[in-house]
Design goal:
Number of strands: 10
Radius of gyration: 25 Å
Helix content: 25-40%
Largest sheet: 8 strands, mixed
CATH architecture of the largest domain: 3-Layer(aba) Sandwich
Strand order of the largest sheet: 1-9-10-6-5-2-3-4
Number of domains: 2
Distance between the termini: 42 Å
Oligomer: single chain
CATH class of the largest domain: Alpha Beta
Structural class: alpha/beta
Order of helices and strands: HHHHEHEHEHEHEHEEEHEHE
Shape: elongated
Length: 340
C-alpha cells in the first residue's frame, strides 16, 4: 500500500494524460495484492477498483489529477467531525449508513442478545444507525425508556457507554439478562437505573458514573395507550388523556435537557394512533413538546413497519376495516432528530 501511495503522488506531477492512464491501468492490475498490508487505513477491493475506474474514465488531465489526489488523500488522511467517526475522505464506503429521510428496514436484527420478545421494543437497526451517525467510541448515551435493553446492547457492540432507565421491575430484569448476554469487546460501561425518568436525579446518577454530560439521548416512549405496558400510574401508557401524556413526556425532556452536551443530539422514536374514527398525530405533538424547550429540529425520518404484534396475522381484517372505515393502515413511525 505504501508503494501505491508513492506512485499516486508521482503521477500528479506528470502532464501526459495517456501516460497517467497507462500507469493507472498498471496499478489497477498489481496493487490489489498489497491491500491492507502496509497501512492502518483499510480500503476494500471494490472501492479501490471503483476509484481506478473513475480515474480511467476522465477526459482531461486536470480532472484525472483531481481524482488521483482524492484517492491518495483517502489512503493517507482521516477526516472526521466532532460527533462521529465517519471518515469523510472515504465517505463512499459508508453505504450501509442511511442518509435519506425514508427508512425501509426489513427483518429486525436478531443476532447476539437481540430478540423481539418484548412488546413495543424497536428494531436494533434504529439505535445502530443513530449511534454511528451521532456518537463516537466511549461517548455516553442515555436511553430514558430502556425497555428490554436494545439501545444498551448496541452500545456494547459499538463501543459506547450507556445508561438506561426503566420504570418496571420485571422489565429491568429482562433488560439486564439481555444486555449481559451481549459481548463487551470495547469494555464499555452499561448501567440500568430502575425509576421514573420524570423524577430521577440524573445529575446524581451521572456523578456516580464519573461523567458530567451525555453525548446522545434516545427516547422511545409508549405511543400513549396503544399498548398498556403495566398498571403503574407513572407509566406513560396509562395516561388518561393525551394532554396528560404530553405533560409527562415534557417533564422528561425538562429533566434531561441539562445533561446533554451542547451541540449534541436527541432522537425521539414514536408513532401516531387512531382512536374513535380520528387520526391522532401523536408524533408531531411530541415533536412540538421538544421544540418548545429550545431544541432545534434537524430531521424528520419516516420508518416503515410491516406487522406489529397487535396486528399479527390480521392483515385481511385490518384491510377490511380500512376499506369500511375510510382510513389508511399505519405502516410507519417517526424518528425525530434534534440538536441542542
Amino acid at each position: 500500500m505504501k508503494l501505491l501511495i508513492k506512485k499516486l503522488s508521482k503521477l500528479q506531477k506528470i502532464d501526459s494524460l495517456d501516460l497517467i492512464k497507462n500507469e493507472i491501468e498498471s496499478l489497477k492490475s498489481k496493487a490489489l495484492k498489497s491491500i491492507g498490508n502496509s497501512t492502518d487505513i483499510f480500503i476494500t477491493k471494490e472501492k479501490l477498483l471503483s476509484d481506478f475506474d473513475q480515474i480511467l474514465s476522465t477526459k482531461t488531465t486536470a480532472r484525472t489529477k483531481y481524482y488521483i489526489s482524492r484517492l491518495e488523500k483517502s489512503l493517507t488522511k482521516i477526516k472526521t467531525n466532532k460527533i462521529n467517526e465517519i471518515n469523510l475522505n472515504r465517505w463512499k464506503e459508508y453505504d450501509d449508513i442511511i442518509t435519506d429521510s425514508l427508512w425501509i428496514i426489513g427483518k429486525r436484527d436478531k443476532t447476539g442478545a437481540h430478540n423481539g420478545a418484548y412488546w413495543g421494543n424497536f428494531v436494533p437497526q434504529i439505535p445502530n444507525q443513530l449511534l454511528r451517525r451521532f456518537t463516537k467510541k466511549n461517548d455516553w448515551i442515555l436511553d430514558t425508556f430502556l425497555g428490554s435493553g436494545t439501545t444498551l446492547i448496541e452500545c456494547k457492540r459499538l463501543g459506547r457507554n450507556g445508561i438506561g432507565v426503566e420504570l418496571l421491575s420485571n422489565v429491568v430484569k429482562l433488560a439486564k439478562e439481555n444486555i449481559d448476554r451481549e459481548d463487551n469487546p470495547y469494555k464499555v460501561k452499561t448501567e440500568i437505573i430502575k425509576g421514573d425518568s420524570t423524577k430521577i436525579d440524573f445529575k446524581n446518577e451521572l456523578n456516580k458514573a464519573g461523567v458530567k454530560n451525555v453525548q446522545f439521548i434516545i427516547m422511545h416512549p409508549p405511543y400513549w395507550d396503544i399498548i398498556k405496558f403495566s398498571k403503574n400510574k407513572n407509566d406513560l401508557s396509562n395516561s388518561k388523556t393525551m394532554e396528560g401524556f404530553l405533560k409527562s413526556f415534557g417533564k422528561i425532556i425538562d429533566n434531561t435537557y441539562s445533561l446533554l452536551q451542547n451541540g449534541r443530539y436527541l432522537a425521539i422514536v414514536i408513532g401516531d394512533k387512531y382512536s374513535s374514527g380520528e387520526w391522532i398525530p401523536l408524533g408531531f405533538y411530541t415533536m412540538q413538546e421538544v421544540m418548545k424547550r429550545g431544541y432545534k429540529l434537524k430531521s424528520t425520518i419516516v420508518k416503515n413497519f410491516d406487522e406489529t404484534k397487535g396486528k399479527m396475522k390480521q392483515k385481511e381484517l385490518w384491510r377490511y376495516r380500512a376499506l369500511a372505515g375510510g382510513f389508511y393502515i399505519f405502516k410507519h413511525e417517526y424518528i425525530f432528530i434534534f440538536q441542542k
